[in-house]
Amino acid sequence: MNEGILQIAKRIAAGGKNIVFTGAGISTESGIPDYRSDGGIWEKHRPIYYDEFMSSKEARIEYWRRKANLYPDLVNAQPNPAHHALVDLYKMGLLEAVITQNIDGLHQKAGLPDERVIELHGNSQRVRCTRCGKLSPLDDAYRRVKAGDLAPECECGGYLKPDTISFGQMMPAEKVRRAVELSNACDLFLVIGSTLIVHPAALMPDYAKRHGSFLAIINLSETPYDNVCDVLIRAKAGEVLPAIVEASSVMKSRSL
Ligand SMILES: [Zn+2]
């Protein structure tokens, strides 16, 4: 077995505070496109900024039109072996929390409780009113758009928007605070499928490392932390993670 897999498994099984950080790379195996890679949506469309969404009905209509196009892929996307492996880890009591840049909700779909998933960029399965903050399922808004209500609004008159962070929109302060706090106080910081370039994600491995945490990275492409991390595995998460969790489980049962 890969030496890196065993090293990570050993750290996990030691039973400290284990934090996992996930990016687009964990969801590509579920058919969710990585927006930053070639041919991603960013190539085809100029993004709609938050200010435009708030100030222009045309921008809102265009936003919802794009959203409706993505909807079938979004609802049909299923968690892959990497998501399931993290749920197994949680059930073994070996996973404190997942910090994610993803908005697909697949960690929860796989079975992780909401409160264990810190979604830095929001969740596209939910809709939030930009005025009163009320949350509702994406399904409801989607049905309205399909029925001809092209830029749906809340009962309060506010604009409905998927509960994700748009370009030009503030990051959710409370979630960032919690993510930083966890990074500062963990024993293992395991990065899966993130290039660690987008802020504030880019700083978190640094916090973890500076506080003496073990830093491991599973990613197909380069990251700025490749030379400072303790273990680096260049492989697909869905192939490596189940093996790590399996090995952790064996090590944990041996130590009991
Ligand atoms: Zn409202």
TrEMBL record:
PROSITE patterns xref list: SIRTUIN
Domain spans labelled Deacetylase sirtuin-type: 1-256
Binding site for Zn(2+): C129, C132, C154, C156
Signal peptide: none
Domain of life (superkingdom): Bacteria
Active site per UniProt: H121
SUPFAM superfamilies named in the record: DHS-like NAD/FAD-binding domain
GO molecular function annotations of the record: histone deacetylase activity, NAD-dependent; metal ion binding; NAD+ binding
Enzyme class: transferase
EC number(s) stated in the UniProt entry for this protein: 2.3.1.286
Keyword annotations of the record: Metal-binding, NAD, Transferase, Zinc
Protein name: protein acetyllysine N-acetyltransferase
Lineage, opening ranks: Bacteria, Candidatus Moduliflexota, Candidatus Vecturitrichia, Candidatus Vecturitrichales, Candidatus Vecturitrichaceae
